[in-house]
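Students often ask why we bother encoding 3D structure as a string. The short answer is that it lets us treat folding as translation between two languages. Here is a chain of 705 residues written in the first language.
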Amino acid sequence: MNFNLLASLFVVLSMSTCTTSSDSGTNTSEMDTTHYDHTNTLINETSPYLLQHAHNPVDWFPWGDEALEKAKAENKLLLISIGYAACHWCHVMEHESFEDTVVAKRMNDNFICIKIDREERPDIDQIYMNAVQLMSQRGGWPLNCFATSDGKPFFGGTYFPKDQWMNILDKVSGEWQTNPDKIKEYANRLAEGIQQSEMLPLNTDPALFEKSTLANTVEKWSANFDNKQGGPNRAPKFPIPNNYQFLMRYAHLMDDPKTMEHVLLTLDKMAQGGIYDQIGGGFARYSTDIMWKAPHFEKMLYDNGQLVSLYAEAYQKTKKYLYKETVYETIEFVQRELMSSEYAFYSSLDADSEGEEGKFYVWKKEELQTILGNDFAVFAKYYNVNTKGLWEHGNYILLRDEDEKKFAVKNDLTVEELKAFIGGCKEKLMAVRDTRIRPGLDDKSLTSWNALMLNGLIDAYHVFDDDKFLELALKNAKFIVSKQVREDGGLNHNYKEGRSTINGYLEDYCFTIEAFINLYTATLDEVWLQRADKLMQYSITHFYDGKSGMFFFTSDLDKALIARKTEVGDNVIPGSNSSIAKGLFLLGHYLDNQDYLTKSETMLNNVQSQIPNYGSGYSNWAQLYLNRVYPFYEVAISGKSASDKVVEMNQYYNPNKMILGATQESKLPLMEGKFVKGETMIYVCENKACQLPTTEISEAIKQLK
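And here it is in the second language, the structure alphabet:
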């Protein structure tokens, strides 16, 4: 089917957007309480993004029966506008068009207007993003889509300047009045395409996984590596953690130094670049250039949670101080700026403050000179307050281009002296920055993103053996269990000010399952495995598609949309199907559950033909593939010192293993019969067949081939 726009419509020229990677937030507790000329139904919502639009002259509705029934009753088209609180171009279009009374009247007269927070309703966003991508081969946010009253899209795009937007409104409304049947016909055809996209048939061929498949994948992928600046050889550059986690594991297992060099180059450049907040820690969403210099300044929880995991793993592999520093500073940033008193993590910080992108983070040279005084000269060399760091309007983005050791030697300093010097400068600059008007905060908490951050904290604890990371992880896990797990065993997706209003999606389950499994390995408390298993059973009951062997993104308890999507590919956030397939694999081993292992194998077999041609879009699947083509070891540690031995084991990089442990008798299948009073024994097993036990981690490591 050809999804080009009908000739009777028009050509979209989508402009700048908050880009997909394959593609001003407001803290509502501090909202202005002054009089507004306009208030619409969004005022009753909890989403900071929707509340940003509650005083637009546009008669916005949230997604729901009221809006859809009103469209049918009045024979109007739907205008569906989707964005998120930290999206810069969403703000621009709001200021240009949605706050303009003339534009608003045109929208209100001819359409039922629906505003959606893509982070709260990723199920709806998937459908309309899919539609726009089928029509225009591009996507991003704000996403503006026109649909019939039953929700079937027929035209859309991303950001439109005001004049173009007015022209579009006129043409669409005019076409609806003169040719409604043509629009309905096209909408029906497009809906069919949306329903068919990402649908995978069950692969009935025997599951055969080979190392050559991954070698072929990396070979094709490497043609797009930037071997000077790291990452892909194009801009914008997104820090996609599951890409580099796979490539690092692949390079280690395949003994591929070239690929490992690329991974570490990328991690170095990101941590030293402008995409990383050199003063306050934490990563921005992406770099607008190939040098990781000028970021899109919004900070997302999901990026930072995953990047903590990635850099912790890289430190485990290399013991490079830069990676440890990055982990610690990023966690400090999240604690300081994205954590509630309930130990829930907020969603994001806006790119803008005072109407300017990046204003909170950049510096004037004169400002730095005043703050730092005699320290400025060395600081300026270290952070490139020169032509390299110069951005726009006389502002500088701080970035580094060499590590501490090299810089210290060049400047007649010891590494410790340099660290102390830089630490003192950071304190002075943070004190000044704290007086600036802060970027807007999206203070809703999403279960899926909290689980990603939770997993990052546990990974940091594994590698650095720092109790504060585990303590924080347990507090966040308690929040999820107490606030987001319902009495029926299901999960809620969102949380804000004591309210959870949206039923959980597959992404909430798969990431929480992974985090709870990981929390078991940190605490050796089997209750976390039990909780992970209950969530998996719930997922199978309400999300599993027996026909394809895959999982739907939405529960069978949710009200039906025009399509029930299956999220297959991996993006900045791993796809929910690849993640739950990994969860099935791990729980299958921990609990000796063959049904889980079979389901995981079937899912991987369904997608394996797609992996070689699009490695970056299937990298989380490829991680699971590694566990199928290399020996996967079950390391069972039993005895009074099991916890200490687990900590010791985690100082070694072995990506193709899982750890079980118990300080007393355990009923876990792989732990039964292994407890010896007064001793701590280590068993290295493969497919439940164990080698001779040892008491020393160093000997166990030798058994991990």
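Translate back mentally: The CA atoms of residues 231 and 266 lie 5 Å apart. Keep this in mind for the problem set.
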